[in-house]
Structures are given as C-alpha cells and as structure tokens.
Amino acid sequence: MTPSTSPLKFALIGCGHIAPRWLDAFQNNPDVDLIAVADPDPKSFEKLSNYQFPNLKTYSTIEQAYNNHSIDAVVIATPPQYHTRYIIDAINRGIHVLTEKPLCVSIDQFRHVLHAQKLAEENGIITAVNQQYRWNPRVNAIYNAVQNGKIGRVFLVNSEFSQNNYHFKKWWRQQNLYISAFNWYVHIIDSMRYYLNSKPKTVWAKFIRPPHSKILGYSSLLLNVTFENGTEWHLTANQESVAGPTTSGHTQFTMYGEKGTIVNTKNESPMFYPIEGEKEELGENIGDIDNQWTYPPGWPDSVAKFVHAIRTGTSHPTSIRDNFWTMVILLGAIESFELQQRINIKKFLYKYHIDEFIGDI
C-alpha cells in the first residue's frame, strides 16, 4: 500500500530532452523521493549532476529498477511510441503512472491502454497524462469564462497555430508520419476540449507535408471537429512555417458565443467582447505572465496533482480516462485523412471495438 505521509518513491523512465522538466519538479516537491532513473543511454545521466537526489540509482532498463526497489509511482518520459508499453507494465505491477503526452500513437496501442486503464481503476491505481497546458493561467481564464456562461452557448471557434522552428533532429521524430500531431497538436486538441467540456461528434482532417519540410511526415494540419454541444471548431496548424510571426503554444483563436466573443492572441491577455458593453480582460495580467514562457511550465503542477490523487485515492484531472476523448479526436483525424472522409465518432469507436471500453467515460 502506498504510504500516506512519507515521500512517495518515484522512478523516471527516460532521461532525455524533456527529463530536466521532471527533475526540476521532483527536486522541489518534498512529497517525492526520486530513487531510480532508467535510460539505455548512459550519457543521458550526466544531467543528473545538476540535482541532489540522495537515494537515486541509475539503470539501463526500468525492469532493473523494479527488481531492486519498491516503487510507488513512475513518470514516463520516453519517446512517444514507447509510452503505452511502460504504462501497461507499470499498471500490471500495481504502480501509479504519470506519462508524458501522447497517451499512445496508434489505434492498437489505444485499445491496449484502455484495457490497462480498466485494470488500474479496479485496483485503485492512479493514472495521469501530462497535459500541462491545463494549469496555465491563460487556459484557466478562458475555461472559467466559458463554463461560467459569460460567452453563452459557443457555436463557432476558429483557431490558428504557427511555429517557425522546432527541434526535428531528435531521432524519434522521424518514426511517425503524424509526429507533429502527437507531439504538439495534442495539446491544442486537449485545451479546446477542456474549454468546451463536450465530446466530439464528427471529425474531418487533412494533413499536409510542406515542400520545405525537415521531417518525413506531416507537419501541417487542417482540422474540423463538431462537438455534441453543437460547437464547430476549425483549426489551421503549421509547425514548419517558412517565416513570419509565431503564435503561442495555445494557438490564437476567436471563440463566438451567444453573448459575445473571446479573442485569444499571443501577446495580450484573452479578451471578451460582449454584444453589449465594453470589452473585458479575462484573468489578471495574463499577457505579462504567460508570454515569458515558450510553453507553459506545468510540470510541477502535474506532479503535485498526481501526488494529491495518490494520497487521496481520487482521479487525476488529466487521467487516462479523461484523456480518452482527446486521443479519440486525434486518432479520428488520422482516420479521416487516410480514408478521405468525415468520421462519425460513434461509428469510429464501434469499428475498432473501443465502445466496449467506454463505460461511463
């Protein structure tokens, strides 16, 4: 049984590019005792010299760590294609799981991880996916405005995302045709689903590989999602712009509702334009706070909420169960592109026998 007061014994799987984000979060959380880091590349452990974890041991495989320690929780920070493998293995061992996004990179992995999630819930194992944008002041200000009814029923959202440069040289970014969607656009999808608090009804998508692309796959995306609440969402996303301004990682968008419009841009706080009256800033000084970051530094929040969920036996806000619908939109978009047709989500779930896992999701 997980201890109720002592620091939780954590292991980190993967010590590469994103690991310092997690190491910083562990270092500053007294409820975390990082006792094991696993990575097949011994050079990756050099960055550990910047931290003080008195009980830490390093291993080439996480199985070695499991054999030598009693571990309460793991954080999975491997390349995306390996996430599902380590999620399932940890759950089978009775270990709480916090994984980097994406949850998976294929429909087959998705089905397998849903089986594991059912097992986790039956045995009180906490799962979480690091959708760290959720903890950002900008995102929460918009969420509160929408969910408190300030904008009324949302009927249309137009979003735009553009990035000029990105770290494409990492070897695993060449392993999947849709890596931009799995690695970055999954944040955009998750945030919009969070704002609207509604399930997807239909999805249409077109993926594009720019002629100057540095990767093998598709880094541009046209996406349309119809939600069950009637909202139409249009997204134009490009991760390899040739030149010009970039948007924030949250995208810039205009959200149209019965009572007015929310405009979200990169350099200002989100603004609400009511049908009657003066425009209103959402949140306080969000433009100044948010724009100092390349993307939201939400790792400490993800860890803190994960620890809280373990301590209290409650679901994490971005659990695998919650992340289900984010991944359905992304996987449905790929299906739409490959079949060149709009995807009905209910039929999509039935086709891959995913509907049997839904339950009360």
Radius of gyration: 20 Å
**Number of discrete helical segments:** 11
The chain-level mean pLDDT equals 91
Trace the largest sheet across and list its strands. 14-13-12-11-7-10-9-8-15
In this structure, how is the largest beta sheet organized? 9 strands, mixed
The top level CATH class name of the largest domain: Alpha Beta
This entry's quaternary arrangement is single chain
Number of DSSP E strands: 15
Second rung of CATH, namely the architecture of the largest domain: 3-Layer(aba) Sandwich
Task: Briefly note the structural class of the backbone.
Answer: alpha/beta
Overall structural domain count: 2
CATH superfamily of the largest domain: NAD(P)-binding Rossmann-like Domain
Shape: globular
Extract low-pLDDT stretches.
Answer: none
Percent of residues in helices comes to 25-40%
Proportion of beta-strand residues = 15-25%
Instruction: Write down the CATH topology of the largest domain.
Output: Rossmann fold
